[in-house]
Amino acid sequence: MEIRNLEHIDFDSIFHGFEKAFADYEIHFEKEEVRALLKRRGYNPQLSFAAFDRGEIAAFTLNGTGSFNGIPTAYDTGTGTAKEYRGQGIAGKIFAHSLPFLKEAGIRQYVLEVLQNNLGAISVYRRLGFETTREFDCFRQSISQIDFSGNNAECTISQTDTDTIIRARHYCGLRPSWQNSFDSIIRGSSGLTCLGAFAGDTMTGYCVFDRLSGDITSIAVMPAYRRKGTATRLLHEAVMMMKTDFIKVLNIDTCDHQLHAFLKNMNIPVVSKQYEMNLPFYNNSTPNELRS
């Protein structure tokens, strides 16, 4: 089995490996959804790696790269192993293989998210030196079950652009997760819709979302206009434009009490919980767990 980067591997081959790795999972991904996901998360094929068996992808780690907290960062945007290759430690070998290349490229930390009930993976990551940095909640609800009874704000809702959203980034109370970051919004702008709530010429809130996947990437309101129905109006307009019959709001910091209260009031429940984990690259050493 050969491990190499994905610089010269076409997207169809990558998606085929993605499909095989997640074939027995409850959630299935469409090709264009994966393409958009990788774009938004900063997928870097030169610094992404896979194990190949007779030319076919057996396991992979798709890395996004960018700046996070002002630090050059690699982000695990997707790791998977085809069912018949599991239990052989291939994912760990891919990660070990990737480390020198990441460090040589100037990467100074590695960030990932893992489900809190995936105790096996969490144990492995901690042995590798990863530390838990934040806890995230993920929300999902059928559009028909969302409670829009507070949809009475006196404001105008209209489409806007990512530049306007970026200028209003201070409306967002806490630092977003990697996939909901403003860098992510810029990268994925062609596939995202931006709505602004306006009181006269003042944008009092915004919502950024993906109509094809049902993903609410960001929703925020200027502090002086909160608890007045602005976020409800924005969400209502967003779901009217969705191509899905559900919405999802992923990786929301558990400390973001205002957004949690809003989603609860809208009858949008938490469906899963994740840890954000970080591995700083203090030096060029390889974690003990990966040396064997």
**Tally the helices: what do you get?**
8
How many strand elements? 12
The CATH architecture of the largest domain is 3-Layer(aba) Sandwich
Task: Give me the strand/helix succession.
Answer: EHHEEEHEHEEHHEEEHEHE
Find the CATH topology of the largest domain: Aminopeptidase
Broad structural category? alpha+beta
The description of the largest β-sheet is: 8 strands, mixed
Give an account of the 3D structure.
- The protein has helices at 11-21, 31-40, 90-104, 119-127, 162-167, 182-187, 230-241, 257-265; strands at 2-5, 49-53, 56-68, 71-81, 109-115, 131-142, 156-160, 193-199, 202-210, 215-221, 246-253, 270-280.
- With 292 residues, the protein is of the alpha+beta class.
- The protein folds into two domains: 2-107, 3-Layer(aba) Sandwich (Aminopeptidase), CATH 3.40.630; 138-273, Gcn5-related N-acetyltransferase (GNAT) (Aminopeptidase).
- An eight-stranded mixed sheet has the order 1-2-3-4-5-12-6-11. Strands 7-8-9-10 form a four-stranded antiparallel sheet.
- A hairpin with a 4-residue loop joins strand 9 (202-210) and strand 10 (215-221).
- The chain is elongated.
